[in-house]
Amino acid sequence: MPVLAIDQGTTSTRALLVDDGGARLVLSRSHRQHYPAPGRVEHDATELLADIRACLDAAEGLPVTAFGIDNQGESCLGWDAVTGEPVGPVIVWQDDRTAPVTDRLRADGCEEMVRAAAGLPLDPYFSAAKLGWILRENPEAQRLHAQGRLRLGTTDAFFRDRLTGRFETDPTTASRTSLMNLAHRDWDPALCDLFGVPRDCLPEITTTTGALGAAGRLPLTASVTDQQAALHGHGCRAPGEAKITFGTGAFALALTGDLRRAEGVLPTIAWARAGEPAVHALDGGVYAASAALNWARDLGLFRDWADIAAFDTAPAIARGLAFVPALAGLACPHWDRRARGAWMGLGLGTTPRDMVQAVLEGVAFRMAEVMATMEQAIPLRDPIGIDGGMTANPWFCRFLSAALGRAVFVSAEPELTALGTAALAAHGAGESLTLPRRGELVEADPLPADWHARFAAARAAVQGFGASSSAPG
């Protein structure tokens, strides 16, 4: 049964027709990125909704009987329950305007309470502080709240409200807010009070799959966060199976089955399919992956992706040059927003090519830190599936394998997120979808321990500089 998968991501919205043979692109629309102030990243909610509607319109006449949608995860907004109009822009997951709020809560000793209930550290990455900011700083949100008309939620709840008339979210997305109690899979009153988010303004938490309403004639049968969709698309089903997606940021997920906790990585819900127990996972991210490479290209360090597909020199780290990709702070397992990116070991002989090589290595080293932390909670199975734009670079894939000290399976399927969303949508419609698995196994000798130590020293240095700096952002 062909199903439609709508992949609503950070930079574009894409519709794909998926069946057992794979995915076929129906429509792709990019949307604008807004940076109104340092540390702020926004999207236009009406533009995103229009793109999704265009995707549904493009599927008219196709042999589709259901659709699924994946979302950005932590991006969120407020809107009018009566008119459906947003009260302001979407505050994107990359936005760190609420860092002073999470810093204050940490100083007040609240982090342990948040970790215990939601499984998440205090960080502006997650939606709770953003949603509290909307109510606190937006006069229209305050007016609507006083009238009982304010709705607050992640982007999926907005889309589903406007498309199906049902104000709902799913557990994978709710688990990224810092407002859902992981054990109970419901909004936690104490967390809502802590972040200043009225519980009655939040959507109902349903399942990831099932009868989730309809957009016109087409039933919605799956709603899921993009990274969990990619995990499903990789074919991960057993505890210890893991994937890493190298997009704007790099995000790893490893299935645990039951709820597991480990210092530095995040317990989350992988999916909660209708009629089945919820499946849990561990999550860890690096904020800047492809974003770091795009930034380096914008600086003029290279022109074309083919220029950095191979290097005829020893790794930059072996020559004393390291790059820490903390361009938006450090995520897992350090959770330090004050850290900023830096090259360490620059000399008069350093070339732009050396600097780009160090950027690629820095992303790999950071992901090695994430996976090593995950392994403390659950043994990981080889190979680890990888996908995303950076995995088109063969040199990076080999260096990543060496940094991880294990084999990686480089997926040749460019639409894993959509495939996972489609497979979940098929399940929600009472069908099954067998996903193709195409790719290449890459395995390299592990890197010397002193190279890891050298990178760790560079990472600690940027953290020390961030802690001592009074610069904004």
Structural summary, described in words:
The chain is built from 14 helices and 23 strands. It has 473 residues and is α+β, with helices and mostly antiparallel strands. The chain has a domain of 232 residues: ATPase, nucleotide binding domain (Nucleotidyltransferase, domain 5). The strands form seven sheets. The chain has a seven-stranded mixed β-sheet. Strands 3-2-1-5-14-13 form a six-stranded mixed β-sheet, with helices on both faces. Strand 1 and strand 2 form a beta hairpin. The longest helix has 24 residues. The termini are far apart. The model has no long low-confidence stretch (mean pLDDT 94).
Measured distance between first and last alpha carbons: 49 Å
Round the mean pLDDT to the nearest integer and report it: 94
Instruction: Examine the secondary-structure arrangement and name the CATH architecture of the domain at 3-234.
Output: 2-Layer Sandwich
Radius of gyration: 21 Å
Q: Count of helices?
A: 14
Percent range for helical residues? 25-40%
Strand portion, in percent?
Answer: 15-25%
Q: How many beta-strand runs?
A: 23
CATH superfamily of the domain at 3-234: ATPase, nucleotide binding domain
Could you tell me the CATH topology label of the domain at 3-234. Nucleotidyltransferase, domain 5
Please describe the biggest sheet, giving its number of strands, its sense, and whether it closes into a barrel: 7 strands, mixed
Q: What overall geometry do the principal axes of the alpha carbons give?
A: globular
Low-confidence stretches: none
CATH class wording of the domain at 3-234: Alpha Beta
Quickly give the structural class: alpha+beta
Strand order of the largest sheet: 17-18-16-15-21-22-23
